[in-house]
Amino acid sequence: MAYHILICDDERDIVSALKIYLTRDDYILHTAYNGKEALSLLQQEHIDLVLLDIMMPEMDGIAAMQELRKSYNIPVILLTAKSEDTDKISGLELGADDYITKPFNPMEVLARIKSQLRRYTQLGSAAGTEKSASLLRVGSIVINDAEKTVTVDGDPVSLTPTEYAILLFLMRSPDQVFSPQEIYTSVRGELPYGAEGTIAVHIRHIREKIEIDPAEPRFLKAVWGQGYKLEG
């Protein structure tokens, strides 16, 4: 299966370099040079993943991310500079799944893309799965892992692939506390190397979707100094 990847960056040298890296894996590549062009392409083409720069003219990556998430749940990986930590967090809060800091290693780019596409494919494919073994319930949260759906109090909840993977991991072991490092390793399939702080952002975003009052969560709770757990 050939995946369609949208590369959006105003620096044409970076776009060209990414096209060279990704052509080796036979991806079908689309390019844009600002947020408006990216959103327009999303309406015209079937896109499976977006590489999105933060600092761009006309419409930056943060604004594009905000608009994109109104209509699409596809994986988004931010391309960021080290000086853009605040914007990086804003992007994650708006629904980005991961980020890569410039200058980037080609092998890291490929690994992160493959990881996100694998999760996205699993999220969207239900064929051949035993439904009787795929229904998880913790309190009023229900995940049907065959259909890749989440409901809370009977209402459907829309999660990004990374958010879904985190919630599913926690729901499989209710009341058990997991450190951010353990969650990161389980969801990413790799050692955190200091990047586990992004888990806190994803946890906050999940709370905003499943909790009545995210500031006083009834399900997804923090255990000070240890990590997070899901309670019924």
Q: Cα-atom Rg, whole angstroms?
A: 18 Å
Low-confidence segments, given as residue ranges, are: 125-133
Secondary-structure element pattern, one letter each = EHEHEHEHEHEEEEHHHEE
CATH 2nd-level architecture of the largest domain = 3-Layer(aba) Sandwich
Largest sheet, in brief, is: 5 strands, parallel
Q: Given this structure, which CATH class of the largest domain is correct?
A: Alpha Beta
- The overall pLDDT, averaged over residues, is 84
Shape: globular
Please give the domain count.
2
Strands of the largest sheet, in order across it? 2-1-3-4-5
Cα-to-Cα separation, first versus last residue: 39 Å
Share of residues in strands? 15-25%
Number of helices: 8
The H-level CATH homologous superfamily of the largest domain, spelled out, is Response regulator
Number of strands: 11
| CATH topology assignment of the largest domain | Rossmann fold
Q: Find the structural class using helix and strand composition.
A: alpha/beta
Task: Name the helicity range.
Answer: 25-40%
Can you walk me through this structure?
By secondary structure, the chain is an alpha/beta fold. The chain folds into two domains: 121 residues, Response regulator (Rossmann fold), CATH 3.40.50; 100 residues, Arc Repressor Mutant, subunit A (Orthogonal Bundle), CATH 1.10.10.10. It is 40% helix and 20% strand. The chain is built from eight helices and eleven strands. A five-stranded parallel β-sheet has the order 2-1-3-4-5, sandwiched between helices. Strands 6-7-8-9 form a four-stranded antiparallel β-sheet, covered by helices on one side. Strands 10-11 form a two-stranded antiparallel ribbon. Strand 7 and strand 8 form a beta hairpin. Helix 2 packs parallel to helix 3, helix 6 crosses helix 7 and helix 6 crosses helix 8. The longest helix has 19 residues. 34% of the residues are buried.
